[in-house]
Amino acid sequence: MIPFDYRRAEDAASAVALVTGHPEAAFLAGGTNLVDRMKLGVAEPAMLVDISRLPLDTVDVQADGRVRIGTNVRNADLAANTHIRLRYPALSQALLAGASGQLRNLATTGGNLLQRTRCVYFQNPSTPCNKREPGTGCSAVDGYTRYHAILGASEDCVATHPSDMAVALAALDAAVVVLGPGGERVIPVSDFHRLPGTEPQLDTVLAHGELVTAVELPPAPPRSAYRKVRDRASYAFALVSVAAALELEDDDAAVPVIRDVRIALGGVAHKPWRALQAEAVLRGAEATDANFRAAADAELRQARPLGDNGFKLPMVRNTLAAVLRDLTGVPAPDAGAAGTDHPEGPDGPRGTGWEDTTP
Amino acid sequence: MTNLIPASAIGTAYERLDGELKVTGTAPYAYEQPVERPLHLYPVLSTIARGTVERVDTAEAEAVPGVLTVLTPETAPRLADTSDRELAVLQDSTVGYRGQIVAAVLAETPETARQAADLVRVRYAAEPFSAHLRADDPALYAPEELNAGTPTDSSQGDVEAAFETAALTIEQTYSTPAEHNNPLEPHATVAQWDGTLLTLWDSTQGVHAVKGTLAQVLGLEEEQVRVIAPHVGGGFGSKGMPHVHVVMAALAAQCTEGRPVKFPVSRQHMYSLTSHRTPTIQRIRLGAADDGRLTAMSLDIVEHTSRIKEFAEQTPAPFRMMYASPNRRTTTRLAPLDIPVPSWMRAPGECPGMFGPEVAMDELAAAAGLDPIELRRRNEPETDPETGKPWSSRHLMECFDLGAERFGWDRRVTRPRSVQEDGWLVGMGTASAVYPFMRQPSNTARISYEQDGIYSVQIGAADIGTGAWTALTQIAADALRVPIDRVRLGIGDTRFPAASVAGGSSGTASWGGTIIAAAHAFRADHGEHPSPGAATEADAPEDPEAQDFALYSFGAHFAEVRISADTGEIRVPRMLGVFSPGRIINPRTARSQFLGGMTMGLGMALHEQSILDPRFGIFVNHDLAEYHIPTSADVLDMDAVWIEDVDEHAGPLGARGIGEIGIVGSAAAIANAAYNASGIRVRDLPLTPDKFLA
């Protein structure tokens, strides 16, 4: 821990000015991730500018159906907001799938977007990490990669973005409102986070001193949902998650046709991963389990699994199909619960593939 | 047979006597003990796994205002005994594992100590190292003996011949990962040295064990060490013997002119400093006749140990005594690695040692076309297969039968992957549990009559969250034949007479038996109407007859498992444990112990694994966000019951201990249920969703 200055912002503009004027300053809101990183020696800001008391903490439903979420709205409050729960269930479900009750009471909307990867090497200053210390190398790429990327990674970084909320926002086509020294700009959420490339130290497109002031949702899609797959029932980061927003041509059709769909994947990339290939397969297609799986396969064609995370391919495929089935009312195929007479029996194990991934 | 003490308070479900202190946050744990003007210690840990420290540059750290000193291998005081290399902190420049203490900052505040520790520059000469457990490691060796004096290998009959001719055979390899104890209260020591007396407020499972070890290591007389630990927030074995942080705090206290030193071990630092459970690789062969009766059993185990200090977990112990078979063999081999020192974790030996074998029994049941309970019934041994001694009390099948009835075992569909509900594959599984009865010598209790009917009962025991404060008070009350509010118990301080460690599920029987002996002696010395100040001390009673019996607790676990057909996510909606532990002192705290063990078994089954990165020699998932234990959402309908059973050969209490049996076998029951649900046999813990993806 290193001593640091603490300033309480008077308003958004002065907060931006304070951070812009100090190359080692950082904004502090809920602190649920930044303070952890400071304790771990991963972040060493010389100055914290506390924006948590700024009145950017309302959820405003506008006349045109858009919703503006202030950056300081707490995750717990946003998840419980009636309009969000009813009209944007994917967002509420994603928020409630994240962290723990205590953390959600503190964590803010802007902070959730800006949380950093929990890659175990990033979080351990005694190991090399290009994201923490550019040029030192990536410890993860040949290391423990259960929670790491299968899409869009580079040889310099295979970390995943940990947010659930941001995955839902990507499927909902949200935008991030940012205030900088030169004024306000609006960034589509899918363009807000970066892929690692050769500069994995940069998580987002924000310039130093730019402050997230709000998140804007377009009018609600007819159907949306979020599903997170994790190693325990609560308080674990996603192995894989799927957010989907969907509109059918005819809600009452026996085999409905998908008019529009947006899909985002979590736990698989350095950013919430918009599954554009899958969306292209599904737009105009019939809502069937086979089409859902074909869409997943189209997306996963570009996947590059690492040593420990090849399982994410079938996990994405199955979870994406399950979410889309739930959203469209397509029944589940027989999951094979027809009984099996000791597939391994005394003759030896069935190859499940996972044996090789045990460290 | 000993004379069992009549029960009055014993067997009553008193609430914890220390409960109010704990829920109001006023029970003082080690770090919270009030001391004057403490200094705060923060360690600098090695960033190489093997080699030497060439130079420690402390100038920058010592320049930070509020820093008293930085101790290094060059400047730290010398220990008297450095033979235990785990404890020989800062005594030379060698590095035996990554995460070893190579310097320590003493400062006026914890923040300053931590800041300065970041500024200590250490230059190393690194050497090649090994931190990867492999079953084919050419360095594997046979230790002289395993933990608790268990023989390394065992052999009866001719396993090879019997296996070759067996009608049914199972030949598989199972594995359990490294695990960390992770008690809720991290290890912490506060040390004060006044020139003649060393006082340690320590989070420990045994104050006298700490006293003895520290006196030896520091070269002090035992009377010069006092250890205090009235309340301990769990240990699960990792506080059973002092680890390096205790010596570090004591050493630092010699450099502060009498000021106390506080050393709270951080959660992350616990992963290298305060021990872990070894991973195990278990190669199992079972041979049986058509009717399921075992004819051959062998178990070959590979575990790791630290090169600087051997710990050999007694993983084959339960395999040797659990089932009848004329031909049997076990071996245990260790891979010496350049890693932190492994040690005890809840039910060392029995816990990992009942995973592979109990899954193998499930596989054999399937191969034989038998219900898993029936298979075990057919292999019940009349006497201990290992020693030939008669059982003092073996009620394994009663546990299964009661459990089967309560759990609804008859609703289990034998054919795997046959039941699906709402996208979840559903199954049931079962497994045996066992834990040996241990009663420790080296216990003494002191009883004195204060006045107004109040008896002081003192023994240097420990309550690590088990309920010992309450149970020992109940035992003392019955032994003295007074109501429990007449007993003023003293534990957790070496000013009280010597007591053994809270480990091996031996505490209540060992300390309680000694309290009973002291109460009898007190009444013999002073009668029913003693004078104020009347006092008697007595040692643990001898019980030579116990040597003639095989004394074990048994149990049966039942689990229902649901596995998502889509995602592989696994949930355990129901668990039931049925135990035969001898007499229960306090049903309330006993149930809590059983459920705690089962919950830890649930974590072992589904979640827990310490990931050792062999390139660095560190456990990379070193916090409670990345090292998963069950959350409340994972622990659903869980119940524990027991068979009323007083063991006449288990001392005057007739109680065999309950702290560990709850974890033993529970992971196997869940793995067996997962197979029944999914048709996928997972032999490597933990049972994570990826292993069930179709």
Task: Write up this protein.
The complex is a heterodimer of chains A (359) and B (694). With 359 residues, chain A is α+β, with helices and mostly antiparallel strands. Chain A folds into two domains: 54-217, Uridine Diphospho-n-acetylenolpyruvylglucosamine Reductase, domain 3, CATH 3.30.465.10; 223-328, Enolase-like, domain 1, CATH 3.30.390. In chain A, 26% of the residues lie in helices and 19% in strands. Chain A contains twelve helices and twelve strands. Chain A has helices at residues 12-20, 34-40, 75-80, 82-87, 89-96, 101-106, 109-114, 165-171, 189-192, 276-282, 289-300, 312-328, and strands at residues 5-8, 25-28, 47-50, 59-61, 67-70, 175-180, 183-188, 211-217, 223-230, 238-248, 258-266, 273-274. Chain A has a five-stranded antiparallel sheet with strand order 4-5-8-6-7. In chain A, α5 runs antiparallel to α8. By secondary structure, chain B is of the alpha+beta class. Chain B has three domains: 19-28 and 440-542, 2-Layer Sandwich (Aldehyde Oxidoreductase, domain 4), CATH 3.30.365; 33-128 and 182-273, Aldehyde Oxidoreductase, domain 4 (2-Layer Sandwich), CATH 3.30.365.10; 147-179 and 277-437 and 548-692, Aldehyde Oxidoreductase, domain 4. In chain B, 23% of the residues lie in helices and 24% in strands. Chain B contains 16 helices and 26 strands. In chain B, α10 (356-368) crosses α11 (372-378) and α10 (356-368) packs parallel to α16 (666-678). Chain B is globular and about 75 Å long. Chain B starts with 18 loop residues before the first helix and ends in a 16-residue tail after the last helix. The relative contact order of chain B is 0.14. At the A-B interface, β9 and α12 of A face α3, β8, α10 and β24 of B.
